[in-house]
Amino acid sequence: MEKAMHGAYGVGYETYCRKQDVRMQVEKKREEDHLKSQRIVADIERKAHS
Question: How high is the pLDDT of residue 32?
Answer without folding.
Answer: 97
